[in-house]
Amino acid sequence: MFKLDEIKELIELLDKTSVQELEIENEGARLCIRKPIKTELVQVQPTVVSGTAPTAVPAVSAPAVITEPEAAVSPGEKAANLHTIVSPMVGTFYRAASPDANAFVNIGDKVGEKTTVCIIEAMKLMNELEAEIKGEITDILVENGQLVEYGQPLFLVKPE
């Protein structure tokens, strides 16, 4: 079960990020927190057409977030049949176990299904992420210490 303090902390953390939705399952309990999409009216002045009145246009004030893996993969990489390792959760991405340790993987490294590629910190828990595919790391798509979202591409792997 989730404690009230944990839920409040999650809501505060979500409020401070661009993440719009968070879903967590723990010991059979499921928690889903969503931010409401805020809209505001913006007055648009016509510039070319004369004799028309300004119109109100709804505008979304929330920042645009790209969560589709295809957005980070160029057409050339799609043709090369690269596998994308994505984040299984919202959290902070770390390339190494500690600030002074070597990175788990670098571009050009060979990985196996059980090779740890990074750590995702969520709710003060360190979650090791395994490659789940045999191949070679061709690209690292996020920076160390960066906040990542569920489904966000992290690594590109050329399968063996």
Describe this structure in words.
This protein is mostly beta strands and 160 residues long. Helices cover 11% and strands 39% of the residues. Strands 5-12-10-7 form a four-stranded antiparallel β-sheet, with no helix packed on it. The chain has a four-stranded antiparallel β-sheet with strand order 9-8-6-11, with no helix packed on it. A hairpin with a 2-residue loop joins strand 1 and strand 2 (29-34). The longest helix has 12 residues, at 4-15. The protein is elongated. The model is unreliable at 56-71 (pLDDT under 50).
Order of helices and strands: HEEEEHEEEEEEEE
The radius of gyration over CA amounts to 20 Å
Give the total of beta strands: 12
Count up the helices.
2
How are the strands ordered across the major sheet? 5-12-10-7
Brief sketch in words of this structure:
The chain has 160 residues and is mostly beta strands. The protein is built from two helices and twelve strands, in the order αββββαββββββββ.
Key structural traits:
single chain, mainly beta, four-stranded antiparallel beta sheet, 12 strands, 160 residues, 2 helices
List the helices and strands and how they pair.
Layout: H1 4-15, E1 21-26, E2 29-34, E3 39-44, E4 55-60, H2 75-79, E5 83-86, E6 91-94, E7 110-111, E8 116-122, E9 125-130, E10 135-140, E11 147-148, E12 153-159
Antiparallel strand pairs: 1-2, 3-4, 5-12, 6-8, 6-11, 7-10, 8-9, 10-12
